[in-house]
Amino acid sequence: MRYNPHHRPPPTAGSTMPAITDTTEWAAVARLHATLADTHLRQLFADDPDRGGRLHGTVGDLYVDVAKHRLTDEVLDALVALAAAAGVPEKVAAMFAGEPINTTEDRAVLHTALRAPRDTSIVVDGHDVIPDVHAVLDRMAAFAERVRGGEWRGHDGRPIETVVNIGIGGSDLGPAMAYRALAAHATMDCRFVSNVDAADLSRNLAGLDPATTLFVIASKTFTTIETITNASSARDWLLEGLGGDRGAIPKHFVALSTNAEGVADFGIDTDNMFEFWDWVGGRYSVGSAIGLSVMLAIGPDGFRDFLGGMRTVDEHLRDTPLRENVPVLLAMIGIWYRNFFGFPTHAVLPYSHDLARFPAYLQQLDMESNGKRVGLDGQPVTTDTGPIVWGEPGTNGQHAFYQLIHQGTTTVPCDLIGIVTPDVDLPADTARSHADQLIANLLAQGEALAFGKTAEEVRAEGVDEALVAHKTFPGNIPTTTILADRLTPSVLGQLIALYEHRVLVQGAVWGINSFDQWGVELGKVLAKRIVAEIDGADGDHDSSTAMLLQRYRDARLQP
Ligand SMILES: O=P(O)(O)OC[C@H]1O[C@H](O)[C@H](O)[C@@H](O)[C@@H]1O
């Protein structure tokens, strides 16, 4: 639903708070929107030439420029007032305190506890969780040191050379993204298998020696069908390669889970299980035991730096007034575009090839969290919620889909993320010249998107009149630019927490539960039913599904 300033929905039945769209703070933002909706960024910069020097923030090592947004200081004030009216500070405090803000599952939401210092205390249901968190981190570190140091031996006595993480969703995207992002810091080869398509397992096992391979089975629930299927096939592959001795399994399989029973049922010794807890959401779990592959790759010290980076942003969120609070401002700018301008998507464009999987990671983080259509009270929301999040690294995207961003009919707010000095194994001069090109492109895109090119400017270049419209760039496309000097483990942690908290704040404003994901259930149930029907009796299907199923049966691999 696009925000319509003339339509005032009735207050939601049964709710104690007015819908956010019924508040005076919402109306105040709407009024500002009405005055600014047609104002071009060219005009905003002409009226306020120094806005670049003012409209930016820093958090940890991240410099965050918000000057190229279609807003004024007055808009930011109004958006911050809206955040306060929506109870954002209370929601932040409730999260940090371990209150069960995941109401539909009656769970605390405490990914921030995963990176809290050892000497703090966070009590959930009468139990301090911080000693548990550090006990697991210590066990992970001891294990990682043994594997990395060659002390942990495989079945035939040889050290581990390759780690294969098997998991999906939050048990894959976080570690896979982080491993790739921190490739320059990694000293172990890790691979990531997620899809139940056997091609994923098969391609990743290619060339591996079972005797030197360690499987890390990552699943919060340990019931996810893709992960259990891949893990079973990996176990068969291992046993086949090592002469069928089941005694090999404990040396080549470890588990990351909240479900000790499921792990034991699968045949993994719970001594080889690294635990986490139901108050860690899958998409918020990379700082938990789910990050073990990352720790194996970069070492325990690197992983602590990674958690430290997250903690820096956690403390910033918790302790900084809303008006200077970077994740809050980014969240509210997102609300400005999503709800007042009605822009449906948000692109994340890292000018860092190491961050290639960051947009995919954010898709789960944001879309699984805020892709909701009812509020906490179960009533339909009164305004749009999460946008479609997408993106690919620059400069590649420039030669592919940026055309639509520059000249299409949909305005796409973009985040441009730049890393000043990439960690590469090339001579310094070579590395610098590539970095100059990369960052020049990032800056050029920010300018081109904001300011465009008018028909007059095109004509002044002597362009044939028939082509003027084709060569005109409307501009006025907003961007956030985030710059960091290097992509260290800490900086990656900062980026992750920045987006995590942006999601939290937006969910708080929309009055939704950002921490459940009931929308993924129906497909799972139906798939289970259909698997049973492939070799069995037909279920009750529509004619389209029935035809497709029969076609699959006719063509499938025969035993
Ligand atoms: O870690 P697991 O329990 O295997 O869950 C893996 C993933 O699958 C689910 O369907 C959810 O949509 C994700 O939030 C979750 O991260």
UniProtKB/TrEMBL annotation:
Annotated EC: 5.3.1.9
GO cellular component: cytosol
Cell location: Cytoplasm
UniProt-listed GO biological process terms: gluconeogenesis; glucose 6-phosphate metabolic process; glycolytic process
Catalytic activity: alpha-D-glucose 6-phosphate = beta-D-fructose 6-phosphate
Pathway: Carbohydrate degradation; glycolysis; D-glyceraldehyde 3-phosphate and glycerone phosphate from D-glucose: step 2/4; Carbohydrate biosynthesis; gluconeogenesis
Keywords: Cytoplasm, Gluconeogenesis, Glycolysis, Isomerase
Pfam family, one: PGI
Active site per the UniProt annotation: E368, H399, K524
SUPFAM superfamilies named among the record's database cross-references: SIS domain
GO MF entries: carbohydrate derivative binding; glucose-6-phosphate isomerase activity; monosaccharide binding
InterPro entries: G6P_Isomerase, G6P_Isomerase_C, Phosphoglucose_isomerase_CS, SIS_dom_sf, SIS_PGI_1, SIS_PGI_2
Family: Belongs to the GPI family.
HAMAP family found in the cross-reference section: G6P_isomerase (MF_00473)
Cited function: Catalyzes the reversible isomerization of glucose-6-phosphate to fructose-6-phosphate.
Protein name as it appears in the record: Glucose-6-phosphate isomerase
Organism phylogeny: Bacteria, Bacillati, Actinomycetota, Nitriliruptoria, Euzebyales
Gene field: pgi
